[in-house]
UniProtKB/TrEMBL annotation:
Name of the protein described by the UniProt record: IS6 family transposase
Organism: Dictyobacter formicarum
Family annotation (InterPro entries): DDE_dom (IPR032874), Integrase_cat-core (IPR001584), IS_Transposase (IPR052183), RNaseH-like_sf (IPR012337), Transpos_IS6 (IPR047930)
Keyword vocabulary terms for this entry: DNA recombination, DNA-binding, Transposition
Key word DNA-binding present: yes
Pfam annotation, one family: DDE_Tnp_IS240
Domain Integrase catalytic per the UniProt entry, residue ranges: 63-226
């Protein structure tokens, strides 16, 4: 995507495109819901067009937001939830800190040591995460194996502790609910790639809703709108 002109050659104004993308990623709306809402505004936008906008701009929104995320804490809660792709369940790995701020996310077709290790590597490499002091996980046997491998490779701090205690993960299990709420109107995804692109948008919008953007507080709707507009060089 062209960094300077991400909306070049688009039939609709950039502000309308971003509005549809932002609303779809933030609220429990279907593409047909947004088509109807745009029609109320006098705009004839087909739901398939909105789908293409989300596929194109959700990953770009996530990429542009990353440098502006606040640093999270060193206490991690790691867990997986399920997402349906082509009528099959796949695994969305997610992590939050002790305050509920999102650390990282990763979509995988498997729930094994390799996937757990890849997810933890991504969380460790994220620019907004601190080195973990403790990582809380459930009883999934893949986590101790992945943790041991990363520890042996020197990629996890020596003093970091892995704790397998399900009740400590209540915070992230509650945080999964927003994913379930957003995916329900669409009744699942038709491909792994489209699922990943959409989930990137869901996750970054949820992070902004939590106030994880620099200069923002939780529930700061005006700040969220302004940040997204500024990231795409538009007037809010």
């Amino acid at each position: 995507m062209n960094q300077q002109h991400p909306f070049k050659w688009r039939h609709f104004e950039a502000s309308i495109i971003l509005l549809c993308v932002r609303w779809y990623l933030r609220y429990s709306l279907s593409y047909r819901d947004l088509e109807e809402m745009m029609r109320e505004r006098g705009l004839d936008v087909d739901h398939t067009t909105i789908y293409r906008w989300v596929q194109r701009y959700a990953p770009e929104l996530e990429r542009r937001c990353r440098p502006y995320l606040k640093t999270t804490s060193d206490s991690w809660r790691v867990d997986e939830t399920y997402v349906k792709v082509k009528k099959e369940w796949v695994y969305l790995y997610r992590a939050v800190d002790a305050h509920g701020n999102t650390l990282e996310f990763f979509l995988s077709s498997t729930r094994d040591t390799k996937a757990a290790k890849q997810f933890l590597l991504g969380a460790l490499a994220a620019s907004h995460t601190m080195e973990p002091r403790v990582i809380n996980v459930d009883k999934n046997a893949a986590y101790p194996k992945a943790f041991a491998e990363l520890h042996a490779e020197g990629l996890i701090p020596k003093g970091c502790e892995l704790r397998q205690c399900k009740y400590l993960n209540n915070r992230i299990e509650q945080d999964h609910h927003f994913i379930k709420r957003l995916t329900k109107p669409g009744m699942g995804f038709f491909s792994f790639e489209s699922a990943w692109r959409t989930l990137q948008g869901y996750e970054i919008m949820n992070m902004l809703r939590k106030g994880q953007g620099q200069g923002m507080e939780r529930g700061d709707v005006a700040g969220l709108v302004t940040l997204v507009a500024n990231l795409f060089e538009l007037a809010a």
